[in-house]
Write a structure and sequence with these properties.
This protein is mainly alpha-helical. The chain has one domain (about 15-45, about 60-170): dinb family like domain (Four Helix Bundle (Hemerythrin (Met), subunit A)). Helix content is about 60%, strand content about 5%. The protein contains 7 helices and 2 strands. It has helices at about 15-20, 30-45, 60-85, 95-105, 110-130, 135, 150-170, and strands at about 140, 145-150. Strands 1-2 form a two-stranded antiparallel sheet. The longest helix has 23 residues, at about 60-85.
């Protein structure tokens, strides 16, 4: 099995490098597994009466945060697929607040959001397992930032960890 070590973050946009630094593990697959385990531990602590809670006016609810992580993982994995397949198209960024508003996440059950999260993560793991070392080294541009396929995988893990930490610190 391919060991996808932590990438060098030199040259990465600071917010992307920050996500890579939040991922826990020495290889990508461990980091993704750690993020999943963290989500499972945290999800077990969210009482039903807090699922739509916002810690301040204008902030996302817990359900919206989980939906955001789901949406972002799909987008980051899609970018990784395109770059791994030598697609040189410069990809646009996405406005996370617009996505959250349009998601109407608070109408969904928390169980449904977590099941979606697990399905997406399994898909991400299958995708990254299919990549060769050469594919992981390929780069592209998204949202005005150059990034490698490998770094996108680490961003997925670290972005999830970032939001699970926010839920733990500010919502529970």
């Amino acid at each position: 099995m391919l060991i996808a070590r932590r990438p060098n973050v030199e040259g990465l946009a600071p917010f992307l490098a920050g996500y890579v630094s939040k991922a826990r593990g020495e290889d990508l697959f461990t980091a993704l597994g750690n993020a999943t385990a963290h989500a499972d531990r945290m999800a077990a602590r969210i009482p039903p009466d807090r699922q739509e809670h916002r810690y301040a006016p204008g902030k996302w609810s817990i359900k919206e945060l989980v939906q955001h992580v789901n949406d972002a993982e799909r987008i980051f994995a899609y970018r990784a697929l395109r770059f791994a397949r030598h697609d040189a198209t410069v990809l646009p960024g996405f406005e996370e607040n617009d996505y959250v508003r349009a998601s109407e996440a608070d109408r969904r059950s928390m169980q449904d959001l977590w099941e979606e999260q697990h399905t997406i993560r399994r898909s991400t793991l299958h995708l990254f397992t299919s990549f060769t070392e050469g594919m992981l080294e390929r780069t592209g541009t998204a949202g005005g930032n150059s990034i490698s396929v490998l770094s996108l995988g680490w961003v997925i893990a670290g972005h999830a960890e970032h939001h699970w930490n926010i839920i733990t610190e500010r919502y529970l």
